[in-house]
Amino acid sequence: MTDTIERATTAGAGSSASSEQLVDSAALAEVLFARWADARKHSRELLKREEFHQIPGLGMAEHRARVLGQLRRLVEEGAVHRAFPKGLGGEEDPGGNIAGFEELVIGDPSMQIKTGVQWGLFGAAVLHLGTQRAHEQFLPSIMSLAIPGVFAMTETGHGSDVAGIGTTATFDPGSDEFVIDTPFRAAWKDYLGNAADDGQAAVVFAQLIVDGVNHGVHAFYVPIRDGKHFLPGVGGEDDGLKGGLNGIDNGRLHFTGVRIPRTNLLNRYGDVDENGVYSSPIASPGRRFFTMVGTLVQGRVSLDGASTVASKLALTIAIRYASERRQFAAAGGGGDEVVLLDYQRHQRRLLPRLATTYAMSFAHEQLLEKFHAVFSGEHDSDEDRQDLETLAASLKPFSTWSALETIQEAREACGGAGFLTENRFTQLHADLDIYTTFEGDNNILLQLVAKRLLTDYGRRLVKPDAAAIAAYASQQAGQAVSRSGLRALGQRIADFGSTARSVGNVRGADAQRQLLTDRVETMIAAIAGNLKNAGSLPASDAAALFNANQNELIEAAYAHAELLEWEAFSDRLATIEHPGNKQVLTWLRDLFGFTLIEKHLAWYLINGRLSATRASAITDYIDDRLLPRLRPHALALTDAFQFAPEHLRAPIATGAERERQDEARAYYAAQRANGTAAVEEKALAKGVAPASS
Amino acid sequence: MTDTIERATTAGAGSSASSEQLVDSAALAEVLFARWADARKHSRELLKREEFHQIPGLGMAEHRARVLGQLRRLVEEGAVHRAFPKGLGGEEDPGGNIAGFEELVIGDPSMQIKTGVQWGLFGAAVLHLGTQRAHEQFLPSIMSLAIPGVFAMTETGHGSDVAGIGTTATFDPGSDEFVIDTPFRAAWKDYLGNAADDGQAAVVFAQLIVDGVNHGVHAFYVPIRDGKHFLPGVGGEDDGLKGGLNGIDNGRLHFTGVRIPRTNLLNRYGDVDENGVYSSPIASPGRRFFTMVGTLVQGRVSLDGASTVASKLALTIAIRYASERRQFAAAGGGGDEVVLLDYQRHQRRLLPRLATTYAMSFAHEQLLEKFHAVFSGEHDSDEDRQDLETLAASLKPFSTWSALETIQEAREACGGAGFLTENRFTQLHADLDIYTTFEGDNNILLQLVAKRLLTDYGRRLVKPDAAAIAAYASQQAGQAVSRSGLRALGQRIADFGSTARSVGNVRGADAQRQLLTDRVETMIAAIAGNLKNAGSLPASDAAALFNANQNELIEAAYAHAELLEWEAFSDRLATIEHPGNKQVLTWLRDLFGFTLIEKHLAWYLINGRLSATRASAITDYIDDRLLPRLRPHALALTDAFQFAPEHLRAPIATGAERERQDEARAYYAAQRANGTAAVEEKALAKGVAPASS
Fold first, then answer.
1. DSSP 8-state code for residue B263
2. Rounded distance, CA A657 to CA B156, Å?
């Protein structure tokens, strides 16, 4: 039972006791700002201005008008053209563009997303799916916002399944035009930013039909409005009020015999010539489709980044408040009330999420590097693109869900004050809610990742027969799941479960890596084993077999995302030289790794990777070592996020709470000093005389 | 590997294949409506009227005015007086009152909560803390809403720690008055409904001071406004916009030398006579405080019920949509797209939450019975009250958190459509967010429950020494944690881990009960062991020791809440006679129990309660048996919630989606039939002639 006391003492020591300041926040800030620090800081500077701040409770119409005005100001400030061609006034800096853009969430997520609609979707579609002629014809007025535009892909009846959309673009050789049609209600374009009010043109995704042949989904530049009025054949509706992002005018569009010039086809991956002959540089319709859609990955990349920024914001506010707010006197003591962050439960609620947010920040930077390499042309092979897409499809679900959970936990950790709109959490949650759905529903993205992992797994087995799979699964001798974008799963997994009695042997980074890696490998191998006969089954049975493994598939992809986040944290940690920062970030990385392992402890136990003793030691290690060690550095770790007061804008993060608590404590101290304090009835009953006597 | 195929077939069979209709929704509805069906149906009838419906996007001022108007209509309809004395026009039916009240969440959670402020907090405080004189003087105008009132307990500096509030009520013998004062900013009353605009009076909680002695927190009836204007000495602020519930005018109040007659003290549990002498029927100041606060338990009871109603609403909308929405064609088939609810992942997302909501409904009914027994006087001992408080403090955290998670999952499961305010989820989430905080923060409530469990545990050990505890913990020979309100933990726990190979032996209800019960018992015993030396430690060390166990304590209390929910489900199930309903509810109860066990699988493995084989069989049993069995009955199980279209008010739950999907399928079928369908490029490349040829 000495162990118990030792635990308690450790926990006590980590609390309000003043502790050596190990963290150099300024140095750590530069690590977090990373390669595109200039773009981020440029946005942060702009975002100090009130004109870029969200006004909660603004009516929908006013909010929409305000955000449109903000976009015009961003054009003037040169904040949104970094990705476009130099010849048109851009900087051809795709990474810097995303970095600067995702910071906009600090001002108003509606501003961030409407910026994304105009330049990241509408503009990027013209840039990536169009060729020189479209760039010259359309990009200047897109860049200047002279033409606010719509990215018309999603349909009411087809959200994630873009290949199945119903809108058609039929070539009319007589007039050398395409005719755009919406054949039924489910094919209306829906949830489109800029569609309800502002959009003057749209990039419309439609099935391209030439002479009775459907060449699949292509993108077309379609003028839709003249000022406030729809052009002939175009119609639509306002999506109305949404759970958040009400500064964006989402709406629906439909088309009836709308004619556009043949050259309004964005023709990089498929063209129709003046003779009405279709051609494409990509022979396979399937690969062509995925290539086109793949060029639009930047939406996912930037949501990953914006979710990370929003998490940093929420945690900074909650941890500042938790460092000042006192509640309940310590048991047995007549002393001051306890600061919230000294409570173990409060540490459990906030510190693992702080660790996760650091991981997200580092993983996002890797994603941004990969994105930049592809879109700058530095490393732009098919494999690079595929890896980028898989990486984005892995990280986006992780970070968008994590951000929502973090914001919610931060809200609750601040109690009633957290529910006041002025303290930011509720509006951030409302706005970021849909980040889990748009740019690819999280569950669907994870399923895509899982299929990629299965494919990679299958490739490694030259003969994917039952014996090979069984041998693989039993040995867990991992090879690289993928060569570049995906994390190499190298080491042979050690048997952690069999020997050690304490957390000792699993404490190191290698052990964390192996445990996380092994889980991905083993899950994928098991699913591959389950599915191995699918090819020889009738289609409906094969579909049922796949469906019976769907939940496990998605869980495996999520495990892979967790591994990627952990690896990114560890990679970055390895480059840090400041000893204090290195020490504290090592604890933080361990907290991240251990909470992941703790979350999946049942898996490690069932699969014999951890013994029961070792497994329970992991929870103890989090509670008794990592949380107390990190608690004194929590504020400094949020200081490194470098939010100015104009970014936080939360009254509870301004020090007002500390002032109030100090005033109250001073009042009681003065009462005790001058003998005016009322005596407690309880004390009186015990025979203590009133203080005034 | 036959097992795999069998699994797949089972999953397939459970999907869109038409299945025998086992559920009698109408009969099941009566089970759910339960004892106070009349009150619930009365509310449901009223809530069909548009005047009681929330209008999303209404400005704060208009929303506040609308909700105040709704309260006036509820008075006219006789919907809010059931709890009050018959002599004053009430019905003295506390259970029916809560039942009818919590349904109001269907119309607008702001209306529900503002009703709760007026009659459940302000009115109930006068009723329960006041005596005949206060009832006669104040209740009539409270009941009629002539005096909208404020329940002024919480302070900016003291949320959950009510005993520590700073507001004082000092007796002035010269004038026979109390003088109410707010000594510093942190003692301002905060987050008070009706405080910003409507409140004409308040029940103010303050430290009662007579002749230099503080008798602790008491409640006082204090007029605060004359129409729109504060009375002298009273001041306040509007809390402004909140994350939700903006139909309620929350605000702050402070008092400077505000004088009220001595008789405005609500004097049931403490009085000051005309000679300025304090007396109380409860000698212990601590017990007196908890008794007073305990009379206000109905807020927690009703939040538990309202969260359950809101969960039913969200699941009905999401499951209806999931039963109509099609997305992605089945692999390999050229056939129709698949209905969302046929996807395993979608079942995993929604069906366990449906099971949880049924558990919440049955557990809430038990809570309501207990509440009614106490407040009707049928069973009103100290022990009954303590059990009621513990039960409420257990269920409220479970159901408020569960409702938020369910609403969020339902939102995400409906994709972009789920984000449109018209489909209800986002506003329900925004409004119910604070249910986890007010009427007692969930984490604090669970800590109180845990302390009660520890106390009960200690009482059972006459000599709570180390040997006794160790013997107890190792034997897990459970006795009743409590005799009445808490669930008796009776059976000796079988060793599930040692023998069986399949899920067979843990499938029965007894096994589920034992596993869930054992976990609570063992966790409490372990914590008691950790804390056993606390009494002999210096106060600060004892506090640190307690803090080092805080997270585990709260987890243990949550495990206890899970057990209570499961027991309530099983109790109610035992009374059901309709064979189809009994069969389907048995699967649903099993799904609830198995998902609880699955969630805590690591604990069962670490503690040797389940073998690895058995543990992994639990997940398989959920995926391969329970979900496919329940899927065909999901709609019927939500039909039993009996929401009328005017209650749901969600366009995606009206059948519109089915119409759209049918229209689209008919369009393509017609194209294929009349030969106008474009041929796929892919098919063409394989040499298939266009359909038109």
1. G
2. 9
Residue B177, beta-bridge partner list: B172, B261
Q: Say yes or no: B586 and B484 in one domain.
A: yes
- Domain presence at residue A476: no
The tokens for B451 are: 């302390």
In chain B, which residues have their Cβ closer than 8 Å to the Cβ of A215?
Answer: 681
CA distance A55 to chain B (A): 11
Beta carbons of B309 and B300 less than 8 angstroms apart: no
In angstroms, the CA B212 to CA B229 distance is: 33
Tell me, yes or no, whether B193 and B215 share the same domain.
yes
Smallest CA–CA distance from A187 into chain B, residue = B664
Name the residue facing B420 among A240, A550, A554 (closest C-beta).
A240
pTM (2 decimals)?
Answer: 0.93
3-state secondary structure of A208: strand
Q: How many CA atoms lie within 13 A of A238 on its CB side?
A: 14
pLDDT digits (tens, 9 = 90+) for A139-160: 999 999 999 999 999 999 886 7
Q: What's the gap in Å between the CA of A157 and the closest CA on chain B?
A: 7
Q: Which helix (H) or strand (E) element contains residue B65?
A: helix B60-76
What local confidence, expressed as pLDDT, does residue B480 receive?
A: 31
Asked whether residue B633 falls in the same domain as residue B679, the answer is no
β A679-680/B213-223 pair status: parallel
**Three-state DSSP class for B235?**
strand
Beta strands, E only, A281-405: 326-329, 337-339
Model confidence at B375: pLDDT above 80: yes
Among A278, A301, A336, the domain-final residue is: A278
The residue written with tokens 């109790």 in the block is B571
List the 418-437 stretch of A: residues with Cβ below 8 A of B. 418-422, 425-427, 429-430, 433-434, 436-437
Helix (H) or strand (E) holding A496: none
d(Cα B622, Cα B634) in Å, to the nearest integer?
15
pLDDT at A328: 79
User: A237 lies in which domain range?
Assistant: 151-278
Question: B5: distance to nearest CA of chain A, Å?
Answer: 7
Mean pLDDT of B588-594: 98
For residues A179 and A167, the answer to whether their CB atoms sit within 8 Å is: no
Task: With a cut of 90, say whether residue B93 has pLDDT above it.
Answer: yes
Cα-trace Rg, chain B: 28
Q: Give yes or no for A163 touching B (CB within 8 A).
A: no
Which of A249, A278, A307 is the last residue in one of the domains? A278
Tell me which residue of A595, A623, A605, A79 sits closest to A354, measured CA to CA.
A595
Position A19 scores a pLDDT of: 59
The answer to whether residue A84 is domain-embedded is no
- Least confident segment among A331-345, A373-387, B415-429, B507-521: A331-345
Point out which residues pair with B155 in neighbouring strands: B158, B189
Instruction: State ipTM.
Output: 0.92
pLDDT above 50 for B53: yes
pLDDT given at position B685: 65
- Per the listing, tokens 């967790």 go with A562
Q: Which residue has the tokens 């958040």?
A: A244
The number of domains in chain B is 3
CATH number of the domain encompassing residue B422: 1.20.140.10
DSSP one-letter code for B423: G
Quote the mean pLDDT of chain A. Answer: 89
Contact A194, A118 (CB under 8 A): yes
Which of A674, A602, A662, A594 lies closest to A627 in space, CA to CA? A594
In the structure encoding, which two tokens stand for residue A535, read together? 């090819």
Instruction: Identify whether A223 is part of a domain.
Output: yes
Which residue of B242, B337, B343 to mutate against A (max A Cβ within 10 Å)? B242
Contact present, A325 and A319 (Cβ < 8 Å): no
Please tell me the distance from the alpha carbon of residue B339 to that of residue B322, in angstroms, as a whole number: 7
Contacts of A185 in chain B (CB under 8 A): 660, 663-664
Same structural domain, B455 and B467: yes
